[in-house]
Give the backbone structure.
Amino acid sequence: MQRLYQGKTKDVYEKDSNHVLLQFKDDVTGSDGSFDPGANTVGLTIPGSGQANVKFTKYFFEKLKEKQIPTHFVSANVEDASMIVKKAKMLGKGIEVIVRFYADGSFVRRYGDYCKKHDPLGGLIECTIKDDERGDPPILKDALITLGILTKDEYEKMMILTKDIATIVKNELAKRDVTLYDIKFEYGRKPETSELMLIDEISPGNMRVYRDQELIEPMELHNLFFGH
């Protein structure tokens, strides 16, 4: 298969005219050997994390399918650490949508005069532009619309989807007595209808989860979630 894109944590291959294959790696984002889902550099390699991310993503995308929430998911091969997904039209060159239930990471670094780590944020939603050179800068609703990245209706739809999906993930984690602090989503458009759908992954590598105010590392979260 032809490789279309080489990413930090996964590579993308052409499967056919309507689908691509995502090959997950054991690399996770962070810095100085520490995990940080908000970082835009690879911080460390965790053996087995590619498979764990696929298993997690498969679990949640199947949950979303039950609730008729549109995603790009088609199938997954956990042993291979790969997924087949529908092709999607990007929103601009890519945006990320972060839901914050508690203050942590870059939010505290930016707004530390007004909050401290672990402060409740009530599911606040931020959008950032995917741009490594500019440090993935935050972008406001009006800028997304003015720059033609999203229409007003698309933005509102994206907010509804984001709240619904984040609540599902938060509640599933709460069943395991752990707390979702923040989670990162990506969206694309269906090529045939331009309808928004969730793309990328829902995995330990894209979220911060705490137990008793202690960060749970990605593989520990996988094992806890699936009872290993």
